[in-house]
């Protein structure tokens, strides 16, 4: 996310509710765009630049004299990192003229150009005015980025670009089948965030089983601190720790079935166990009083002030709450606590995924140039530059050595290292935004955590919402491949 609003996922100010990434390792989220009628197929398109000669240094065959146009979303990550990457492109192709622009009005600025058939060569499609990815893909407006992914990486010709990326990045850019339409450049770590100093004051370690979680919350309660708080007005934040817990307890296939809107997916025993565990926090009085009425900023502020020990969130929280997190807070993130040793996946299983979506239009004049600019941005040097300047990880799997990491970012990197291959990436928030936020989040989980629904009632209600979405012919349905 890039901003701080509730809508997006990119920089510091927009948060498409579910995905913000303001900056920390954070990354942004894919954001679900507003643009429902964007991109009609119109326009005859512009003359394509003639292909250049493919060489070891120019594996995509960029025409070294063709112009390249790059439009960036000007959000929480700023534009300096992109300007620095453009300088590398200009150095590599000194005869090419690069046109770079940054704007917050992506849709209103670029939708007419898509309709006219003369879009830029590379776009950071992010922010409150993000163009709807499903519409763009459905109307064949985007170029398949497979040639970029299969090209040699910028740093090591023996490695393909796809082999240098973090888990889930390639899959996130796919909708149906193998083509990859989007390259998410930033990377967000979701989980349970807390103050290591506060945990140490309780003489406790981060709990790995639910019995341990309840014991830690009881210790906190005796010291006048709530165990948990969350964005009560936006309870779709709860899944940032709840979904990976479900995956840990029942296995990835449970999350995949939920994403696929399969019948009875929400009735799986792992879902029931995790709902009952979270409900226990409410029943035992371990949730900060008044939490259902708090928004994301209010809950984060109460947590930062030590009123609650744990909060489910994404790595943007470090940047977003920087003005209220004490200097000695020692911010940390952990993968979610599980139920017990019978869980299918090990402790450390975490949700992490990409944000800040970059696209190359199908009718771009110099699509090879747009992809080459992305190849440069996915180099170690460009990735390090981004991380150092905006406190966020990138899709490049590395790029943190030699950089002074903030506490939250450092903890996020450690959590990813611990997770290894046990990284899950639920897709409901990308594929079915209204279902995820308003129905599962607000009407389901929000009501349960406020004590107005039992876990069994919440499961039944949410399964009903999922069944409705599965039968709704007005929306496009997706499935894990």
TrEMBL record:
- Record-linked InterPro entries: Bact_solute-bd_prot1, Chitin_NgcE, SBP, TAT_signal
Q: Which Pfam families match?
A: SBP_bac_8
The record's comment on protein family reads: Belongs to the bacterial solute-binding protein 1 family.
Source organism, top-level taxon: Bacteria
| Location in or out of the cell | Cell envelope
Q: Which cellular component, as a GO term, is one annotated location? A: cell envelope
- Name listed for the protein in its UniProt record: Carbohydrate ABC transporter, N-acetylglucosamine/diacetylchitobiose-binding protein
At the highest ranks, the source species' classification is:
Bacteria, Bacillati, Actinomycetota, Actinomycetes, Kitasatosporales
Keywords from UniProt, A to Z, are:
Signal, Transport
Main localization is: other
């Amino acid at each position: 996310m890039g901003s701080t609003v509730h809508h997006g996922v990119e920089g510091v100010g927009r948060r498409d509710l579910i995905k913000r990434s303001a900056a920390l390792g954070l990354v942004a989220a894919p954001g679900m765009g507003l643009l429902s009628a964007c991109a009609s197929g119109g326009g005859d398109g512009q003359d394509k630049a003639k292909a250049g000669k493919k060489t070891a240094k120019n594996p995509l065959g960029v025409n070294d004299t063709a112009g390249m146009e790059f439009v960036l979303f000007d959000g929480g990550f700023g534009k300096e990192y992109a300007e620095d990457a453009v300088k590398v492109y200009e150095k590599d192709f000194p005869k090419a003229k690069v046109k770079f622009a940054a704007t917050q009005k992506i849709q209103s600025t670029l939708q007419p150009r898509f309709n006219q058939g003369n879009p830029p060569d590379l776009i950071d499609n992010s922010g409150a005015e993000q163009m709807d990815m499903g519409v763009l893909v459905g109307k064949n407006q985007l170029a398949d980025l497979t040639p970029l992914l299969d090209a040699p990486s910028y740093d090591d010709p023996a490695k393909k670009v796809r082999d240098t990326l973090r888990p889930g990045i390639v899959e996130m850019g796919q909708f149906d089948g193998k083509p990859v339409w989007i390259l998410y450049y930033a990377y967000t770590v979701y989980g349970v965030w807390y103050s290591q100093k506060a945990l140490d004051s309780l003489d406790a370690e981060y709990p790995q089983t639910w019995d341990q979680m309840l014991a830690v919350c009881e210790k906190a309660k005796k010291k006048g601190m709530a165990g948990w708080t969350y964005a009560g007005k936006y309870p779709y934040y709860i899944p940032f720790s709840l979904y990976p817990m479900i995956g840990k307890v029942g296995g990835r296939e449970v999350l995949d079935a939920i994403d696929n809107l399969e019948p009875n997916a929400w009735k799986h025993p792992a879902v029931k166990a995790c709902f009952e565990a979270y409900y226990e926090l409410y029943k035992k009085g371990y949730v900060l009083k008044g939490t259902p009425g708090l928004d994301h900023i209010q809950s984060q502020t109460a947590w930062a002030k030590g009123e609650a020990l744990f909060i489910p969130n994404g790595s943007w929280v470090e940047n977003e709450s920087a003005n209220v997190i004490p200097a000695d807070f020692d911010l940390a993130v952990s993968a979610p606590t599980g139920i017990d040793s019978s869980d299918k996946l090990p402790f450390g299983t975490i949700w992490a995924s990409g944000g800040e979506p970059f696209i190359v239009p199908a009718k771009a004049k110099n699509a090879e140039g747009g992809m080459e600019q992305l190849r440069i941005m996915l180099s170690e040097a460009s990735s390090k530059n981004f991380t150092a300047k905006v406190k966020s990880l990138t899709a490049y799997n590395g790029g943190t050595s030699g950089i002074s990491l903030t506490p939250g970012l450092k903890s996020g990197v450690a959590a990813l290292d611990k997770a290894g291959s046990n990284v899950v990436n639920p897709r409901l928030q990308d594929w079915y935004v209204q279902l995820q936020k308003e129905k599962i989040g607000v009407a389901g989980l929000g009501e349960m955590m406020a004590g107005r629904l039992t876990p069994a009632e919440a499961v039944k209600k949410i399964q009903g919402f999922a069944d409705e979405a599965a039968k709704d012919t007005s929306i496009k349905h997706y499935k894990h491949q």
